[in-house]
Design a protein that fits this description.
There is one protein chain. The model is unreliable at about 215-235 (pLDDT under 50). It contains 15 helices and 6 strands. Helix content is about 55%, strand content about 10%. It is an alpha+beta fold. The protein has helices at about 35-40, 65-70, 85-100, 105-120, 125-130, 135-145, 165-180, 185-190, 195-210, 230-235, 240-250, 255, 260-270, 275-285, 290-320; strands at about 15, 50-55, 60, 75-80, 155, 160-165. The two termini are about 45 Å apart. The chain is globular, with a radius of gyration of 23 Å.
Length: about 325
Amino acid sequence: MDPTKVDTGALPVVEIELSRLSSVCSPRTTGEDPEHVESLLSAEGELPPILVHRPTMRVIDGLHRLKVARVRGDTTIVARCFDGTESDAFVLAVEANVRHGLPLSLADRKRAAIQIIGTHPQWSDRRVASATGISAGTVADLRRRRGEDGNEARIGRDGRIRPVDGSEGRKLAAELIRSDPGLSLRQVARKVGISPETVRDVRGRLERGESLVPDGSRRLRAKPQPVGWAEPDFGRSVDRDRRAVLERLKADPALRLSEAGRILLRMLAMHSIEGQEWGRILHGVPPHLCGVVAGFAKDYARVWAEFADRLENRATDVAAG
């Protein structure tokens, strides 16, 4: 069973006696937060069901709701039950506490990543990072410190098995691109077994005459940047020429006069802000939410990358037709 694919919202709701429940092995080492408990106590309406690991009766998600029930003097609580392994239940607990409610601290997320690396060594760094709300680079560092970096292949977020050393896949992708330049990123990715993002990087390196494999370690971490780094450089991802193109798109009736077109224009405009504004937003994210927001940003980046691939595929099909 893949715990990251479990639809916990589809599990049936049952009523469980509080005396049967345990909060042992929670990824939240600091216990309940009194202020959060108070906010839940004052909330109107019924609180959502907690999530429980049925074989051990340990609470996977909902420690604060459990505390509220005890403070109120309740004897039972509504819950959904998960029947997987304890290690998979822990992954669910981490994901639940990263995605919603009171976020886990960075220290708790790192401790959780270390535990998941031990119980799911076959998972890729990105897959562990997605579950814990930290960066893939941090996961790689934690894995190296544990001496568990020897796997030849790992399972990614999409369930596909990929080699840890991606240099061979990059070489095959380069050969395909040279032999058939009309292939889309996704077509090359499917044939070689690497991600479309990696194919995009390979194609760019071919165009620039660079090495197919990034210099240094494949997991070389970026050097820490000073606080002012975002102000002069961050906005270069959307240069002035690109903004000028956007202004022309806004005047195009094909986009301006359709609902879908107007939505697209608003989305493009939202990402076309100046570098200083990006820097202000960056520094405005509270430290305890950096991992969570970074996770959303990476997820949205992948959506945009897939959107770009599909547009390229459409353009290729139209040109071929």
